[in-house]
Amino acid sequence: EDILTTETFGRTYEYIERTESTNREARRLAEEGTPEGTVVITEEQVAGRGRLNRGWFSPYAKGLWFSVVLRPTFPPIEAPKCTLMAAVALIKAFRELGLTTAGIKWPNDIMVHGRKLVGILTEMSGSMEAIDYIVMGIGINISSQLKDFPEELQSIGTSFAVEGVQVDRRHALDVILRCLETQYKKVCTEGFDSTLEEWKLYSITLNKDVTVKAPGEDYIGHAVDLDRDGNLIVERADNGQVERVVAGDVSIRPV
Ligand code: BTN
C-alpha cells in the first residue's frame, strides 16, 4: 500500500530482507542506471559499513537501514556536503516524530544525550568534472535496547526506544524520506548556503571546546565556525591560531 508522501524518493525501491550492505546494493543499481530517488532498504545488514572502514551494527528489524541514489548536477566538490544536508533533514524529521533532543556532531553524527543515534555514509562515483551518482546510506537505530548492542557500543549507542520515543518504522521512513527530498531539492535549486546555516543551528560541536586528533599532533581548541565547504574552524587554545579542520583527516571530541 502506498504510504509515501514523497515525489521521487522511494518511488523506485528495492526491499531486501537481508543484505550485505544497502550502500553496496544501491551502487550496483546506480551502475545499472536506476533513477534518482531510488531507495534500497533492508531489515538486516550482515556487513553494514561505516566511515573510516568501520562496520555498522544493523540487527534484524531494529532500525532503518537504507540508501538513496542521487544524481545531482552540482559539481563533485560539493558532494561531501550531502552528508551535512542529510543530517539537517534527519533532525527535522526526528522533531516531527517526537524526538526533539537530537543534535549534529561534526561532521555527520546525530547524537542524543552524548550517544550516537544515526550513521551516514555518503559515497560518490563520477569524474572531476561531473557526478555520475551519489549513494547516501543512512542507519538509524529505532527499537534496539542497550542490551541488544554489542558490548563495545553499549556506552556510546542509542535508539529511539532507548530515548523513550516509540515510532512506527514505516511512518518514520515516510517522514524521513520526505524531509530528505525537501532538503535535497532546496540545495539543488538554491545551493548549500542555507542548509549550512541550518546545520549550525542544530550543531552540538559549534561554540564548544574540542580536542582535534590530527595526523602528527593533537590539540585543544574552540570550535568557532563552519566554513562554506563544511570544514570546522577551530581556534587553538595553545597559540590562538585558527585551524581549518577537514572531515576525514581528524577525529574530534569534546574536551
Ligand atoms: C558511520 O557513522 O560510520 C556511518 C554508518 C552508515 C550506516 C548506513 S546503514 C545503511 C547504509 N549501508 C551501509 O552499509 N552503511 C550505511
Automatic annotation (TrEMBL):
It catalyses: biotin + L-lysyl-[protein] + ATP = N(6)-biotinyl-L-lysyl-[protein] + AMP + diphosphate + H(+). Biotin binds at S21, T22, N23, Q45, R49, G50, R51, K116. Keywords: ATP-binding, Biotin, DNA-binding, Ligase, Nucleotide-binding, Repressor, Transcription, Transcription regulation. The keyword DNA repair does not apply. The keyword Transcription regulation applies. Residues 1-188 form the BPL/LPL catalytic domain. Its EC number is 6.3.4.15. GO terms for molecular function: biotin--[biotin carboxyl-carrier protein] ligase activity. Acts both as a biotin--[acetyl-CoA-carboxylase] ligase and a repressor. Belongs to the biotin--protein ligase family. This is Bifunctional ligase/repressor BirA.
